[in-house]
Predict the 3D structure of the following.
Amino acid sequence: MTGDIIPVLPRTGAPLRLSPAQRALYLVEQLHPGTSMHNVPVAVRFDGPLDVPRLEAAIGRIVARHEALRTTFADAAQRLTPVAVKLPVASGDSDTLVRQWVREPFDLETGPLLRTRLIRSAPERHTLFVVMHQLITDGPSIHLFFDELADAYDGRNDLPRLTVQLVDHAAWQNGRLPAAEDLLWWRERLADVPTVLRLPTDRPRPRLAGTQGANHVRTLPAAVMTPALSLAQQLRVTPFVLALTTYAALLARSSGVPKVLVGVPVSTRDRAELEAVIGFFVTTLPILVDTTGDPGFGELAQRVQSELLDALEHQDVPFDRLVAELAPDRDPGHAPLVQAFFSFEPEPIAAPRLTGTTATVVDCPPDDAKVDIDVTIFRATGDDFRLTITYRTDLFDESTIALLAGRFEHLLAWAATNPAVPLSASPALADLTPPAPHVPRPPTSAGRADSTVEREVAGIWQDVLGLDEVGPHDNFFDLGGTSFALTAVQGRLRELTGTTPPLVTLLEFPTVAALAQHLSGSDDPAPVRSAERSATGRDRLRQRRRAAVRTRDE
């Protein structure tokens, strides 16, 4: 492991490595290009006289100060790129324009990955729209941006020089290998936990996961949240834990299983030199929530807090490594390991201010879906909070999600006065019906791939995975492959065929035979789903895969 000092890299113009969290996010972008799922937008209405040239210059100073805002991404690397800051001014309906701009994808290769636009609705009413790509920002970065914007707009220029930037931290993280005891803890803790959350959906899960989504927004009023926040104090848990407990209890009851995994973002800003840096300093942790034994809400909340604290002790294992280590069945119909995300901010998403104006944050979440269901809660005003549920529209109807949001509010209100009563007694959970047992689809009959193509695919896998032998029915992921390693396979296939197969196709056809058959142009390719493999074959292949992972670590 490297020392505690984050070294500063030489700025030579050469491509720089991604952090583990950036690498995982970049891969998702390659799997689903051209979406807005990782857009981080904020819209602010300013009432009062606004000096537009001064505002544009203030944005330029922020971009000059923070390298992340001048970074682009190509070929799994990041590069610092000159950026000409412009603040175009548009006229029209601000709501319509903001909704349109939120959906615009970024070009990771050409950038820039920060866009700022201004809408003039009246001489003294403007809406500033700011959107960054997730690869270069996080929650604290939004606050930093608007704090520095206010200072720069006022002409203050006394901020200390940043000693490190996002690319330095990424290189430092890559040099810190996960501790063996951390890997062991995750393996043991999640050994028997389902890695597919089977919620009752309005439509069957499609073979390929879609990114088309929608948002359901609901206000959690102070009448509900004030008693809930008081309960958190009584239980000595954080508001985040209280809200996560509510969400997980609904997921467990809806899915009919006592143990569920929820993905939560955790800040990696654990260094003083990172506090003032705009960038993506986040990792995702799969938090296990165990409702076994029908506990009371208070008891479950304390379980969740204990679990979260334990997970934070072992957070140095990157999420993509957890996915590889825990060997969940790869299915292009859903995200690996966790399909439900949760985040909670005790403060508003931003606190903008510009001298001489009154600022109002305008809600504008992107509606493309990263996972099946993603819940975000942040404080609006006072003790009113805003609940946003982003969901896949190929799985859920809006009415189903609205019902879930209502149950969330009712369970939270009930828990505030009944923390010791078993969860099963809550009216919010009483009539939830788990889905029918999952029945794997029988394998589709398929023709035979061209033997030459099959040999070439097997050879590519052997080279990429460092194996001496790969059989036609071996599964890429069970052999030690990771989703990120697919990018190397994709590059080799491009050299072989002259075309670039989408990464999602490589996920859809994870065996040599299935992929070769697809590349051969079969009229009826048979994607191999994990459930179609025999138990014996799965065990044998997983043993080989784990051996390959151990070999890479030595």
